[in-house]
Design a protein that fits this description.
GO terms for molecular function: ATP binding. By secondary structure, the protein is α+β, with helices and mostly antiparallel strands. It contains 6 helices and 9 strands, in the order E-E-H-H-E-H-E-E-H-E-E-H-H-E-E. It is 44% helix and 21% strand. Bound molecules: adenosine-5'-diphosphate.
């Protein structure tokens, strides 16, 4: 709390009033703290692969110089660490772009079915790697919303990638589009749910999942190439689109991440709307 006291005078007369300004600094202190936590986290995340790269370079320069087998193994790990740093920097840039533009809602006309198709094609190789099946339920007719195609692809891709990373061991990953008719005014909403049957998330972690660098299990996330920024990016892009993100999950049963958008018109076959994905 900061207190400022100033006498209010007029043309040299004696002050009849005193201005007392009380400022609550809790919020600005909280923001400053968040900022410095973020910088500390980002530096730590970048330093870890960098330290490992430097270690391997030294080993290659000295002890493993003449061992072809070791050289090959080390170079493979070094390539993985470099890829990790690239992924982290790309995600930091995405996050800062989404945060910077949060006040400007993107206005292109986008068909969510195109977004689903794009993400299916992009994540198919990862699904094969995890021996998982991607099961798609597209919207029955074009699902038009206002938005930015690349950002919406990024939202869905982050959710599907997570479902494959944390959820694929036990079954398929479902991507389901569903129209939710309007309760009052408006044209209703479109929901895309990404559902897995994987390890799930204990309920006490759910409220913090979209915080930057928050992970339920840091080692497990790192092992799977996670950066802890995927859901923070999803949240910011959804805010920018004036959309909603809901998360429901049960440990050992699986998770459902649902993104919801305002429709810009009624779907062509809205006489028989499909069931909303929950
Ligand atoms: P990461 O890059 O670590 O995956 P995210 O921000 O995308 O970061 O996710 C944050 C954390 O939420 C993950 O580290 C993981 O613990 C948890 N998580 C996200 N999606 C799932 C999922 N489908 N199933 C289980 N846990 C998940």
């Amino acid at each position: 709390m900061s207190v400022t006291v100033a006498p209010l005078t007029h043309a040299g007369q004696r002050a009849r009033y005193i201005l007392v300004l009380l400022r609550d600094l809790t919020e600005s202190e909280r923001i400053n703290q968040m900022r410095s936590d973020f910088v500390a986290n980002a530096s730590h995340e970048l330093r870890t692969p960098l330290a490992s790269l430097r270690g391997f370079i030294e080993t290659l320069q000295f002890s493993a110089k003449d061992d072809a087998g070791a050289r090959e193994r080390f170079l493979k790990v070094m390539a993985e660490q470099a890829a990790r740093m690239t992924r982290l920097i790309d995600q930091l840039l995405s996050l800062s772009r989404a945060e910077m533009n949060v006040h400007v809602a993107p206005s292109n006309l986008i068909d969510l079915n195109d977004v689903i198709d794009h993400v299916r094609d992009a994540t198919e190789p990862l699904a094969e790697e995890h021996k998982a099946e991607l099961r798609l339920k597209r919207f029955e007719s074009p699902a038009l919303v206002r938005g930015d195609h690349d950002e919406l692809v990024q939202v869905l891709q982050n959710l599907v990638t997570n479902a494959l990373k944390y959820g694929a061991e036990k079954g398929a990953v479902r991507i389901e589009g569903a129209y939710r008719p309007a309760q009052g005014r408006g044209f209703g909403r479109y929901a895309i749910a990404v559902i897995d049957e994987g390890k799930g998330i204990p309920s006490d972690h759910l409220p913090r999942l979209t915080e930057r660098f928050y992970r339920v299990d840091v080692a497990y996330s790192r092992e799977r190439g996670g950066t802890g920024l995927g859901l923070a990016i999803v949240k910011h892009i959804m805010n920018r689109h004036r959309g909603e993100l809901t998360i429901s999950s049960k440990p050992d049963e699986g998770s459902a991440f649902t993104v919801i958008f305002e429709a810009v018109e009624k779907p062509q076959d809205s006489a028989a709307p499909s069931q909303a994905a929950e």
